[in-house]
Amino acid sequence: MDEVNMDCSDRSGDQKDPPQVDKDLMQLRDHILQLLHSKLNCQYIGKKLALMQNCSYHLEIQREDVSEMEEEVPHLCDSTLCSLIDQQRLARAMIFANTQVRLLLSLLESLFQHILRGCRELCAFMEMYDQGLLDGDAAGSTQQTLMQTLQYADRFEDRMVRNLGQLNLQDRLIPNRGSLLIPKLCPMLTLKLPVMIDRSESCVSVSSVHLSWSIAGEEAKDPEQQFEVEVKSLHPTIADTDQISKYKCQAYNIQVTNLIPDRYYRFSVKREDSVNLVYGLWKDSVVHKTLDVSQSKPQV
Length: 300
Hints:
With 300 residues, the chain is an alpha+beta fold. 36% of the residues lie in helices and 21% in strands.
């Protein structure tokens, strides 16, 4: 993602407005300045985009609300319902959900680029205003740019959640079974926030590294959540074997042992892949170097 670095600070206090500057230009400049620090804050929007790109997306199968037919529809346990699902239809639903996620992320990236370009033009307008290089004719085109950029920002916020939720599939997951009444299933596209390594909690020794992590935006820890930790030696020798090691972990921290001293390792953490995962490419990684043996000996 492009790094956003826009210096649109308020410098009007450093100089007096030229007398020929129209009052409408001054009001437009103040309005743009306010929006660039709120609704059109590109750094904040960029962080939202990065969060969506780093999430994992899942296909959840839920029962539809059949309160009006409770007496007619028999109660079936989840395992029985799962056994009735047509696997080919489920596979097509997984592909459809994956396509929805890719389209969503592609659209959000495109909208973000439009917002970036609009904000750059608005910043250029403010700089020219501060230098006294504008006249009243500049207000029209800048107003149009501002309106278009605000529309892109509104679409970005709307699209962040619109493609999530219930999926409209062509076929029901459970085929019609004649007179047998089967509860309807509702396929839902959901997201889970990314796993983030807490770099301040890392602890390195000669042959081990302690890692801690959390779920972005979540304070409570799910005791049932499973994680996968991958350890890769960045400069393996010919004699090294098992250059990549993987560990399953249910806690939010791990002590990786039996490492080689004075060696660089890349540690990656993510949720353990589940059968209903439809998209999840990102995993947080950090590089640590184990201590040299001489560093661990007390100084005489």
